[in-house]
């Protein structure tokens, strides 16, 4: 089973070819990701119109590249899987239209894939892991605990009620004059800082369950920064390091405590898996692993290029879906919102 995957729901234009041969582990034959970071840099965030146009302009060549690198022609494919949501609708539509066109022209089956399902099924692309497992998806746009019970069965156990941690890392970097993306920059500064100097809040720990909040943390950081500026006329190098260390320790502790609860809520699972760019953070990763080990649950962190947005996870989700007998269909709509516990693709014109 060889599938082409197409992903264009945010600011990465991606295409990949993944093959599953019975009896062998899945093979990623190619995984091309063209980031748009430089196009949006001047605007301080992803501009939907710019993203949509860039996807439309670049998708053709990224797909071609993925096929060339894989050494696979369109006629050697068994199908196409495409992200049908959730995401910025202009970008999603670009991908869906291209996939539809290719599928129709070549008579190939077309599978609509939920972007979040792609993230959630990634651990099975890299490791032989059975259902059910717990997934912590923690990125620039998402933060949620998903109990993955099957290819098409996800239960959201909780998540952020406001910002995603990646977003908080990015805003922290901005407030402290550090480069974007903020995560790696803040992690670097934090390494040399004292996490105890500033007492940042651990929001929502008193609330039952595993919902989280990160927007208060950003406000606390802003206040600490401003009082330093008022008192001393600016920030020293060490101030910056200590602020980063305090912030990162707060995020890590909240994630760890809520992961502990999620593992208690989920019942027995085969693993705790992480996805999303924030999973690259070493102290956060270490905290999560500690919690996991305490529960006697194996900890799984796929390689970073598969944790962040890519199309191999979309192709893989397509393969998983075909394998369990879900019928491909080109009769689906692109959706800006598509919660994972509602996995059926919306039908065209259903208004969903
Ligand atoms: P999504 O995939 O949810 O649509 P996204 O494209 O922003 O959103 P990713 O590409 O998975 O998400 O991750 C990017 C985010 O991860 C950024 O917010 C970035 O700051 C954060 N990040 C990357 N590396 C680190 C790190 N070492 N520590 C903390 N955060 C990090
Ligand atoms: Fe994503």
What does this structure look like?
The protein has 352 residues and is α/β, with parallel strands linked by helices. The chain has eleven helices and ten strands. The strands form two sheets. It has a five-stranded mixed beta sheet, sandwiched between helices. Strand 4 (79-85), helix 3 (89-106) and strand 5 (110-114) form a beta-alpha-beta unit. Helix 5 packs antiparallel against helix 8 and helix 7 runs antiparallel to helix 8. The longest helix has 30 residues, at 237-266. The protein starts with a strand and ends in a 29-residue tail after the last helix. The structure holds adenosine-5'-triphosphate and fe (iii) ion. Adenosine-5'-triphosphate binds next to helix 5 and helix 6. InterPro entries: ATPase_NBD, Gcp-like_dom, KAE1/TsaD, TsaD. It is an enzyme of class 2 (transferase). One of its GO terms (molecular function) is tRNA N(6)-L-threonylcarbamoyladenine synthase activity. Residues 27-316 form the Gcp-like domain.
In short:
The protein has 352 residues and is of the alpha/beta class. It has eleven helices and ten strands.
Q: Which structural class should the secondary elements be placed in?
A: alpha/beta
Question: How widely separated are the two ends?
Answer: 31 Å
Strand order of the largest sheet: 3-2-1-4-5
* Low-pLDDT stretches: none
In N-to-C order, the SSE pattern is EEEHHEHEHEEEHHHHEHEHH
Bound molecules: adenosine-5'-triphosphate, fe (iii) ion
Number of helices: 11
Q: How much helix, percentage-wise, in residues?
A: 40-55%
Oligomer: single chain
Cofactor: Fe(2+)
Keywords: Acyltransferase, Cytoplasm, Iron, Metal-binding, Transferase, tRNA processing
Organism: Tabrizicola piscis
Catalytic activity: L-threonylcarbamoyladenylate + adenosine(37) in tRNA = N(6)-L-threonylcarbamoyladenosine(37) in tRNA + AMP + H(+)
């Amino acid at each position: 089973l060889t599938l082409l995957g197409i992903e264009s729901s945010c600011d990465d234009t991606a295409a990949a070819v993944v093959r599953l041969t019975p009896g062998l582990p899945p093979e990623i034959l190619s995984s091309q990701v063209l980031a748009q970071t430089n196009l949006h840099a001047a605007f301080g965030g992803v501009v939907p119109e710019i993203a949509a146009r860039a996807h439309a302009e670049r998708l053709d060549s990224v797909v071609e590249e993925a096929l060339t690198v894989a050494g696979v022609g369109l006629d050697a494919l068994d199908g196409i899987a495409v992200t049908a949501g959730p995401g910025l609708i202009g970008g999603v539509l670009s991908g869906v239209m291209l996939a539809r066109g290719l599928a129709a022209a070549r008579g190939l089956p077309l599978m609509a894939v939920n972007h979040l399902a792609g993230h959630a099924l990634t651990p099975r692309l890299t490791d032989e892991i059975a259902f059910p497992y717990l997934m912590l998806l923690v990125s620039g746009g998402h933060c949620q605990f998903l109990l993955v019970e099957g290819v098409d069965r996800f239960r959201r156990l909780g998540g952020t009620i406001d910002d995603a941690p990646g977003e908080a890392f990015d805003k922290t970097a901005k407030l402290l004059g550090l480069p974007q993306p903020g995560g790696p920059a803040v992690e670097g500064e934090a390494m040399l800082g004292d996490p105890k100097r500033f007492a940042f809040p651990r929001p929502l720990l008193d609330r039952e369950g595993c919902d989280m909040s990160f927007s208060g943390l950003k406000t606390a950081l802003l206040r600490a920064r401003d009082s330093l500026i008022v008192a001393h006329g600016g920030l020293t190098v060490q101030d910056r390091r200590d602020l980063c260390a305090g912030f990162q320790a707060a995020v890590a502790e909240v994630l760890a405590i809520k992961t502990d609860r999620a593992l208690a809520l989920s019942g027995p699972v085969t693993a705790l898996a992480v996805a999303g760019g924030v999973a690259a953070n070493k102290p956060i990763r270490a905290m999560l692993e500690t919690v996991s080990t305490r529960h006697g649950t194996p900890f799984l962190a796929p390689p970073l290029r598969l944790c962040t947005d890519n199309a191999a996870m979309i192709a893989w989700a397509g393969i998983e879906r075909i394998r369990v007998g879900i019928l491909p269909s080109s009769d689906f709509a692109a959706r800006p919102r598509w919660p994972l516990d509602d996995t059926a693709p919306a039908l065209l014109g259903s208004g969903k």
